[in-house]
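job 3f2a | input accepted
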Amino acid sequence: MTLQQTPGPESVWSKVEGIAYGGDYNPEQWPQSVRLEDLELMKEAGVTFLSVGIFSWALLEPTEGTYDFGWLDEVMDNLASAGIRVALATATAAPPAWLVRKHPEILPVTADGTVLGPGSRRHYTPSSAVYRRYATGITRVIAERYKEHPALALWHVDNELGCHVSEFYGPEDAAAFRAWLERRHGSISALNAAWGTAFWSQNYGSFDEILPPGAAPSTLNPGQQLDFKRFSSWALMDYYCELVAVLREVTPGTPATTNLMASSGCKALDYFDWAKDLDVIANDHYLVAEDPERHIELAFSADLTRGIAGGDPWILMEHSTSAVNWQPRNQPKMPGEMLRNSLAHVARGADAVMFFQWRQSFAGSEKFHSAMVPHAGRDTRVFREVVGLGAALKQLAPVRGSRVESQVAIVFDYEAWWASEIDSKPSQDVKYLDLLRAFHRSLFLRGISVDIVHPSASLEGYSLVLVCTLYSVSDAAAANIADAARAGATVLITYFSGIADENDHVRLGGYPGAFRELLGVRVEEFHPLLQGVQLKLSDGGLSSVWSEHVQLAGAEAVQTFTQYPLEDVPSLTRNTVGDGAAWYLATFPDPDGIEAIVDRLVAESGVAAAASADAGVELTRRRADDGRSFLFAINHSQSSATVHASGLDLLTGDRFGGSVSAGSVAVIAED
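job 3f2a | predicted structure (671 res):
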């Protein structure tokens, strides 16, 4: 199912002022006296936008067909009176106990046949016809009741689809998989060709013979595994679309979305494919406390989210004010870190900043997850920072609707991620994200903004394009990347790119397959490195993970390996093509080596930092349609930093003085 894209995300932004601010509100956990106090605290904090009712099905429909909306009516009315707009949830993220008892067949089944029971959340399979019937039923009831409510600004459909369980192996899932395969391939002979079933006597006589790729004696067919990942992403999206179809029917003028989990840790769903059916992109992001460079991972995830949104403004639906509850050691955020995190998302395209959750729960699994109002209440560092953030976001109203300015694109593809990490590859140490993150980090530290884009996206206007570990690629996407080089861009392609087509069939004739002609090289054999082995390169640097037997076929060698059996074999090459150049990297350099390569690429492409600043300052520029520009300077260091920029600092209301104090942020409306 695919939805009509009406209305667009402008309908969301037209209903909230400035940068929207708030969080996930769960009033059903609290008595009326606390709810009334919440309204006063929300006013103090500057809250303008809340997501309500995500896990409320069991209270809204305590028994089948019996509804209790009194508490939610009161909450919606009070929020409307306070001028707070609502992303109202369909309440379908956790089925109630009576539904599970009546229909246990809705429960998810894992690859080894384990049935996952209730007592947690997300305990349903999206392919269950029974569950869909009940989920669309409660969605319709909620939509009919609140379709005219003045607080309603957005539909929040289900919640974090694919979280905890993203692949389902029950009988209905298997039937849905077979039906999806028949639609995709058209005939069983086409499927056999796509999956290469002549190998290991896997040929199928009909679609009825096919099962999901569950537990098996040895490695499973890679084409089957890849198609099941595609199907699993589609099945959750199809479920989303079925709920939204009800909302479209009842409230055609109200946009809808669901909260994605676009980050370096979530690979289960193809969010670029999902984007076409979301009226506005919304994302949840949480830091890993033990990561000393967690602010750089945040930047990567925010850039990815903006890429999924096609560069349009997006909603940060969830992040945390301080500690979470699900990591081995849940360290609180440092003083000022929450402000830096929040404004980093805004710097990278978010026009709404929201948290899980408004008030910290006193019971349940997430009671030690931080919130805007902590257990200790109003007189706390966290709440003071929440109030301070609200005031800061109010000052940033002029930024809303502007877009991030970037000259660099990093190509990103979920299907290539899946295919590259299916078993039986040359090295388990080749991880799809490793090189992407390494190059993104280097550019981040230089203050150079990056757009993360799908291989099929237009690359026009980018001076530098990075293509890392794009193992599988279509002919059209490969041509799109080659066209960018011919048009004048500097393009870097790394090892294990262009190796296979969309069906995970190896492109014959020598690696790197789809990019061989563009790069002017031919690789006859891979030489992955054993664990702990490093190779010395001709510039004195070291590399690990990967090497290969590269032959020049028009390109020039920029750097070579120096050790047996690859002495003098190119490790980095450059090929002039059209008005641009195509570089090939055949190994994983150490951090200094990455920096040296980026030095070359930046110099050749002419890309530049958003501004000049001391080390430790994150720099991003957003530009409005009328030409106004806003420079975000976020100082992650513990000392004052110089930033060469002039204009009005929106956060202080004064002229920018040229420096940002330790741990602070400046947002400069540039002269």
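job 3f2a | The first strand starts at residue 20 and ends at 25.
job 3f2a | closed
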